[in-house]
Amino acid sequence: MAQRPLLLIDAPSLYFRAYFGVPESSARAADGSPVNAVRGFLDMLATLVRTRRPDRMVCALDFDWRPQWRVALLPSYKTHRLAPESDGGEVVPDTLGPQVPVILDVLAAIGIPVVGADGYEADDVLGTLATTEPAPVEVVSGDRDLFQLVDDDRPVRLLYVGRGVAKLEDCDDAAVRTRYGVPADRYADFAALRGDPSDGLPGVPGVGEKTAARLIDRYGSVQGILAALDAPGSGFAPGLRAKLDGAREYLAVAPTVVRVARDVPLGSIATALPAAPVDPDRLLELAERWNLASPVRRLVDALAGHP
Predict the structure, then answer these.
(1) Cα(193)–Cα(185) distance, rounded to whole angstroms?
(2) Is residue 46 a contact partner of residue 111, using CB atoms and an 8 Å limit?
(3) Which of the residue ranges 76-80, 156-160, 202-206 has the most confident prediction, judged by mean pLDDT?
(4) Coil, strand or helix: which one is 209?
(5) 191: which residues sit within 8 A by CB, 6+ positions away?
(6) If you average pLDDT over residues 161-173, what whole number do you get?
(7) Position 86 confidence tier, pLDDT thresholds 50, 70, 90
């Protein structure tokens, strides 16, 4: 019998998608408060539990969505997502912010652990758990940076939800190679070259995905590319050489910014997925207060069905 996976949930990725995927008008509490993100998030979890059949689950949070150690290396990191007149806060829709504590309350009542770490993003928590927890592991996210976690040997897969949980893409190393032309363990270097506007990574001007993949295929890493630039007879076309030379300062730090941390101090985590809510009275109270009876029931039913 195949081992059941540990399902690692990128909670911010999913609840942002839930917020924009479920209309506010269709999901409100009795007092009129929107609960569309809560409903959508719980339904995503129910679908994942029902279809992936995990026996363990952890939801990861951003305790620091823009860590200073990344900003120190690359000041442009996520600057476009900074909320105006805030002390480093992220732009979050006004009606999403109040829903996050409700999500956390429901998860606590069910008994699904939520984990974060000061100075680190959810990606780093996911990377650490994917590296240190017993496999098999399935990471659920719409963040492309997490393709770097895919590892056929452990195994670790990325369930990529860029088009939603109903259309998730189950990605192994071959899928990453097909999609980007590089193996998963080279994705961070590839992304540094290509850039990622959603994270404020400029990339190397004039170097797109195909050129980035070709460079990684030939030289193995950004470090290998920089070393080759200084080697006689390395064979770079003059235009490409000029582009890479002009981006040396950026390339010296960008892979570290993109690379997910795998050694975040998290302590011991009870990852076992409960077959029934650990605090049913509290869960009932939350379901009634926030008009969540249907999504809560769907998630509870999915949990009850897992072996």
Answers:
(1) 15
(2) no
(3) 156-160
(4) helix
(5) 144, 145, 148, 201, 258
(6) 94
(7) low
Q: Taking the CA of residue 259 as centre, how many other CA atoms within 13 Å lie in the half-sphere pointing to its CB?
A: 16
The pTM of the full predicted model, rounded to 2 decimals, is 0.94
Of 4-18, 69-83, 276-290, give the lowest mean pLDDT range: 69-83
The alpha helices in 133-208, defined as continuous H runs, are 173-180, 187-194
φ/ψ of residue 84, rounded to 5:
-65, 145
Task: Write the burial class of residue 118 (CB in 10 Å: 0-12 exposed, 13-18 middle, 19+ buried).
Answer: exposed
- Residue 242 has, within 13 A of its CA and on its CB side, a CA count of 4
Which residue type sits at 200? G
In order of 138, 204, 228, the CA distances from 244 in angstroms are 36, 7, 11
* Structure token pair of residue 196: 């990622």
> Alpha-carbon dihedral of residues 17, 21, 22, 23, nearest 10 degrees?
120
Average model confidence (pLDDT) for the chain? 94
Rounded distance between C-alpha atoms, residue 132 and residue 127, angstroms: 9
DSSP assignment, residue 97? T
Residue 214 near residue 244 (C-beta atoms within 8 A)? no
Question: For residues 224 and 244, is the Cβ–Cβ distance under 8 A?
Answer: no
- The domains located in the chain, with CATH, are 6-183+261-298 (3.40.50.1010), 184-258 (1.10.150.20)
CA 4 to chain centre: 21
> What is the pLDDT at residue 83?
80
Encoded tokens for 173: 């190393």
The answer to whether the Cα torsion of 282, 45, 38, 65 is positive or negative is positive
* Structure tokens that stand for 207 in this block: 């170097």
Model confidence over 2-21: pLDDT tens digits?
A: 689 999 999 999 999 999 99
290 with 42: CB under 8 angstroms?
Answer: no
Report the pLDDT averaged over residues 102-126.
98
Q: Which tokens is 24 given? A: 């506010």
137-141 and 156-160 beta bridge pairing: parallel
